[in-house]
Specification:
Number of strands: 19
Largest sheet: 15 strands, mixed
Distance between the termini: 48 Å
Strand content: 15-25%
Radius of gyration: 23 Å
Structural class: alpha/beta
Shape: globular
């Protein structure tokens, strides 16, 4: 028996180290940044069993076998659709500003679609105004309404949107809603999903969280897009979830969420439609591609319609496209760069690009909320402040609530508005969307919104920041080390 126990002990020890060696080799063989690899190795060697389980759950981009197969199957039809779209030469822009040209070239080569002109955009900074406009468009819808949101929470004016959607479905409008399972968890426990389905609305719970399948798909991979499509002609996108800020996370101590949405009318709505169609097919297996825009004349051509490009990211879409787009935008800046984000945990490359822009004389401003609903991200964000301040970057801490707007403005001409946070999760994991606008007038509108944010912020003084207590520095460095995993 003694020999048996000795052999078993040696086998267990051998299996234990073999498992650690196997996971270590897997981490080293994967294409990932050095900081990310080192962080995972540290977690695994300090907390071996916990670290291995955490890596298997969250360390790799597992979409799941079924969804991955659907993503591969959908691309031939999507490519054909995009090929047909390119024949509609009238909708594509022929003149791009110098500051926007590098980014638009990147998007065209990676997505296969040039920039689209003849669109009308309206920035909406008020939740009430956004909801009123959305309900009005829903009531006027004739053919289709399609929505995707990360969070949908019943209560307040959101219930008015639900009622308008159900009324539209009853009068024969095809309505489809796709909501992230984790973000909209509370909504799926209310009567509304059942009421919507009874009215004729297709409601899909995307990336459903299932404890029994945790090792078969990455559970923290989220559907983070916010898109509304109406009649293949009107679209909404931006940072706003379908929640009334007066009823959302009131106990978190950060104040009401401040968001920015863009209402878009024109042919670019069709581009957002193909993104929605791809997400819908990956989640449900059903293929329903949008109709190509049938414009014999662009409705806003005579009104200096905006030139717009759409960037979509996530599993099944071009890898690292959002990260590359942000780097290209930052390096294109010559005079001014303004960025707003609720969660600031940049990659080393993005941090270097921002600091380099400031060092070459660009007026760089970053606006972040002073209070954040994520303690870990809040501390991790502060770990980057010293390097930014030393480079000459101005950091503004917004005090009017949780600034949830995600926007970038380059030289007052190139604007990026969408769902992308400046953190690792948005840059490489989640399903995200950003609209890129090449237009000075739109840039002025976005600049006015950002100026208002700055007016309600406190600028971080480098001298005062250097005097912060040592215990804060220690916590910052601790979370900085784990920033690649956030």
């Amino acid at each position: 028996m003694t020999t048996f126990y000795a052999v078993m002990s040696w086998l267990l020890v051998f299996g234990y180290w073999l498992l650690i060696a196997g996971v270590t080799l897997r981490i080293l063989m994967k294409r990932r940044t050095v900081p990310s690899a080192m962080a995972w190795l540290l977690v695994i060697y300090i907390l071996p069993l916990v670290g291995i389980i955490a890596y298997l759950l969250f360390g790799e981009l597992h979409l799941g076998k079924r969804r991955a197969e659907r993503a591969q199957e959908m691309w031939p039809s999507t490519v054909n659709w995009l090929g047909e779209l390119r024949s509609c030469t009238k909708i594509f822009a022929t003149q791009i500003s110098p500051v926007s040209e590098p980014l638009f070239q990147l998007c065209e080569h990676r997505h296969g679609v040039p920039a689209v002109r003849g669109n009308q955009l309206q920035l909406m900074t008020s939740f009430d105004d956004t909801i009123k406009s959305l309900i009005r468009d829903i009531e006027l819808a004739e053919n289709s309404i399609e929505m995707v949101f990360y969070i949908w929470q019943a209560g307040g004016q959101v219930d008015n949107v639900s009622e308008a959607l159900m009324a539209a479905a009853r009068r024969g409008v095809r309505c489809r809603i796709m909501l992230d399972s984790a973000g909209s968890m509370h909504f799926f426990r209310t009567p509304y999903p059942g009421l919507m389905r009874k009215a004729g609305i297709e409601v899909v719970e995307a990336l459903k969280v299932n404890v029994l399948r945790v090792f078969l798909r990455r559970m923290d991979l989220r559907q983070h897009r916010k898109i509304v499509l109406i009649d293949n002609d009107i679209a909404y996108t931006g940072s706003m979830n379908m929640v009334d800020p007066r009823f959302f996370k009131q106990g978190s101590g950060v104040g009401q969420w401040i968001d920015l949405m863009a209402r878009i009318q024109g042919p670019v709505a069709t581009i957002l439609g193909i993104i929605y169609a791809c997400d819908w097919e990956v989640e449900t297996g059903k293929r329903l591609l949008p109709e190509p825009p049938n414009y014999t004349m662009l409705p806003f051509e005579d009104e200096a319609g905006h030139t717009v490009q759409v960037i979509a990211s996530g599993p099944g879409f071009p890898e690292e496209i959002i990260h590359q787009a942000l780097l290209t935008s930052v390096y294109s800046a010559r005079k001014q760069l303004i960025m707003t984000t609720p969660y600031f945990v940049p990659s080393d490359d993005l941090l270097h690009a921002i600091c380099t822009a400031a060092l070459r004389g660009v007026d760089v401003n970053i606006i972040v909320p002073k209070k954040n609903d994520s303690i870990m991200v809040g501390w991790a964000s502060r770990s980057f402040f010293s390097e930014l301040l030393e480079a000459g970057v101005k950091i503004h801490q917004f005090e009017g609530g949780l600034l949830h707007t995600k926007s970038v403005l380059v030289d007052g001409q190139l604007s990026l508005v969408g769902t992308v946070n400046l953190d690792i999760r948005s840059l490489w994991l989640n399903f995200e969307v950003t609209v890129v606008v090449d237009d000075e007038a739109f840039g002025q509108d976005l600049g006015c919104v950002q100026d208002d944010y700055i007016a309600r912020s406190t600028i971080l003084d480098p001298a005062e920041w250097a005097k912060r207590p040592m215990w804060q520095r220690v916590i910052e460095r601790l979370f900085y080390f784990f920033s690649p995993l956030l």
